Amino acid sequence: MGRPVKRSLTLQRHRTSVTLEDEFWAAFREIAAGEGRAINDLAAEIDATRDPDTGLASAIRVFVLQRLQHR
Predict the structure, then answer these.
(1) In whole angstroms, what is the distance from residue 1 CA to residue 4 CA?
(2) How far apart are CA 13 and CA 44, in angstroms?
(3) 4: which of 19, 33, 62, 71 fits an S-S bond (Cβ 3.0–4.6 Å)?
């Protein structure tokens, strides 16, 4: 697994940076594309529904893992 990579996302018109490994970025993009959604929209949904004590990057990793487990 590669080093984490920081990328910018726009959530509800606000820019934020999220650091994920390339493998998680690739899987996250694949999931968004499979649903016909923009990655920013999917990230905004995850952000809005995550536990406030859980970081966005962690929430995205768990989301990706759950989706991959239920394929």
Answers:
(1) 9
(2) 10
(3) 19
pLDDT tens digits for 16-40? 999 999 999 999 999 999 999 999 9
Helices (H), the chain: 22-34, 39-49, 56-69
Classified as helix, coil or strand, 71 is: coil
Report the number of distinct structural domains present in the chain: 1
Written as one letter, the residue type at 35 is E
Give the chain's radius of gyration (CA, Å). Answer: 11
pTM metric for this prediction? 0.93
Range of the domain at 21: 4-69
**Residue 69: closest CA among 38, 13, 22, 31:** 31
